[in-house]
Each structure stands twice: as C-alpha cells, then as structure tokens.
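Protocol step 4 of 6: structure prediction from sequence.
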Amino acid sequence: MPDLSGIVKAYDIRGVVGEQLDADLVRDFGAAFALLIKPEAPAVVIGHDMRDSSPGLSAAFAEGVTSQGLDVVSIGLASTDQLYFASGSLNLPGAMFTASHNPAKYNGIKMCRAGASPVGQDTGLAEIRDTVEQGVPGFEGQRGSVSERDVLADYAAYLRNLVDLSGNRPLKIVVDAGNGMGGHTVPTVFDGLPIDVVPMYFELDGSFPNHEANPLDPANIVDLQAKVREVGADAGVAFDGDADRCFIVDERGEPVSPSAITALVAVRELAKDPGGTIIHNLITSKGVPEIVAEHGGKPVRTRVGHSFIKAEMARTGAIFGGEHSAHYYFRDFWRADTGMLAALHVLAALGEQEGPLSELTSAYSRYAASGEINSTVDDQVAKMMSVKDVFGSRSGVEIDELDGLTVQLPGGAWFNLRPSNTEPLLRLNVEAANAEAVQALVEDVLAIIRS
C-alpha cells in the first residue's frame, strides 16, 4: 500500500514529477475523484498550466475519470481561476493541474466540486487518498468520453461584466506574468479596456527562466518595479504561476500591501451591497476590519487558508474575502479566489479618479507590518508555549489561539505566530504603529523563538 501523505496536502496534491507523481498515480487519483463525485455530477472539467508535465498528467487524470464512467470536459491551458469559472458556470466538479509558484520539477492537482466548492482534507481529499492507497475498484460499465471546450473568452467577459472600466481614464499598466498563466489570460481579459498593457514575461514557460512566479517574494518583483519606473506606468501587476494571486505596485514601484488591497476592494464591494459581510484572515492588517466597519460592513476574522475563508463565506453569506497572501475571494465568483478580478477592481478604482495609486492606497494603509518571518525550530509547540508564557505574564496583553498564537499588546501592536503544516518552521507576522515599533517587537519575539 503506497503512503501518499507526503504529497496529499491540506488543500491539494503536490509533488516532484517522476519521483512522487507520475501518470499511473495521477490516473488513480482521477478514478478516485470520479468515485467521490459520481453521485453529484455526470462529468469533470479539467484544466492545466504551462508546465511541461501538465498536459500529460491532465490526460492521465482524464483517463482515470472516464474509466469510472464519467465524462471529461477539457478546457486545456488555463489559469486556476479560469478553471474555477468553468466549474461554476458549467456547474461541474473540476481539477486543475498546477504547482502554482513551485519550481519546474513540481506539479499538482487542485480539485473542486461543482460550483468551485473546494475539496480539502476534510471535504474529500482524505477520502481520495485512502481510495488510491487501498486500490481503486474497477468499473464494468461504459467508459466516459472526453470533449474540449474553450472558456477563455467567456471567463474574460464574465470578469469584465463584474467590474466596469469602460468610462475610466486611460491607464498604462506593467504586467509581469512571470512566464505563468497570466500571459495566457491577460491579453483576452484586458482586450478593449482603456488600459495600455506593458507586458513582461508573457511567454508561457514552466521552467520560469526569468524569476520564480511567486510575487510575494520581494526578489521576484524587482524587474516589475524597475519597469514601472522606467516607462512611467500608473501601476504594476504581478501574477503567480497559476495566476490566481495578484500583487500590486504603485507608480513609484513601491509594493502595495495585500491588506490595503483587501480593504480597497472591500469598500468597493460594500458600495454595491451595503451592510455586507467581509471575511479577512487573522494576519491581515487590523486596518481591514476597521475600514470595513467604518463603511457599514461586518468584518469576520478567520484562520489562514482558503478552505477556512470559503467555509466562512458560505456560512455568513459574505460578499468578499481577502488574505494577506494576496488571495482574494468573491461571492460573485462562486466564493473562489481570483487575482484577476481583484486587479480589475484596483485598476477601476485608480481610473475613476485623477490621483496616483500611492495616494489612493494610502487611505487603506494605516499601520506598519513586518511581513512573514520564518524561523526553523526543533519543537514548534515548545517554542510557541515559551512565547505565550513570556507575553502572557505582561500586563494588559490579550492572547487568542484561533490559529497559532495571536498576541495583542497595549497600545495596538500585535503579532501572530503560527506553525507550518509541512516544515519545521514558525511563521511570525507583526504589526504596529510604525516601522520602529515593528522592529522592536520582531526582535523581542525572535529572541525567544531563536534562543
């Protein structure tokens, strides 16, 4: 019996092609997924990114699905949010082949039920793993068939219908696709909009020859920042490998915090749906719930991770959700995350007024933050308990354990310390009134963690 615990993660399947993932195993995953969703749907929609291994692995998955009597609708090359669009608009379960921003040797599978509802450990992924480990049962009935369908134009039209930029002033925008799927979707989505796109690294290349397709790493947006300043652009947009996340830089080339983007988009969504609920995870800036409340919305705080965000959106009927990792979720997009729709909101907000993006976003950036700081530790639990003991003994400190440790200090500063699920790491995020206060608190916490 194979042990798949190393590649079946909390939200997806991911591993090194040829070592952990191959066509035979992926075929079994496809059959197991078909068994899971067979009572709910007659077919599965499948898309894949630009990695060299993606077409073959997606075809193997399709063989597994059809071997259990279900049909397959193949949408071919796609961003992850394009696959979610197909799942939502066709009301079919889906599978996306991508390893997002991971290096070229990796690939993976993100699965969802009809309507882009996520499949994670608690919602079917553990069951799929067990089925494959124990051996997928055969099926004696008629095999399913495979058809092809191009949904890119429909996806683009759907997004443009949600955000109207037609009356906006013209903008010059640099877009860094990182050789990922943004190079596939941006030309169609932006076609006909009052936006002059300056493209960077639009060539689809799963070896990522220019830089890693992870815009949250500052090293990977250096080229974008320089190009924005060079051409005098109004803003820059960077997408990750599967283009479900976007990262924004302003006209100076300065990064705009994803928390500020969350607050900006939340205000726009609340203007359409006054009094609506907005989800934010617990490492977004405390400015997010403040701004949401000031605009009449109901902020709801959740754990980190898309399965928690989507579950809370379903439970509360939330209209929008944001994470500090630059994932943005929309009720009008089947509660799924789409970096493209968030980018369109930012560009619409910019084009509706005459000021620069730095001025627009300053209203949504109230505090200084550290960004995520990782520390390798031998015993995650012991180190977290040490931090809890030290800060818990101080006057006026409040601690909650919704997701790791969140410590609120008198005067408004706070930090969150969470263990990684897959590595011996503790992840620290700090926020305070200014950079000096942030640095002091970072040093205070790291002195305990790294002692």
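Step 5 (inspection) to follow. The chain has 14 helices and 23 strands.
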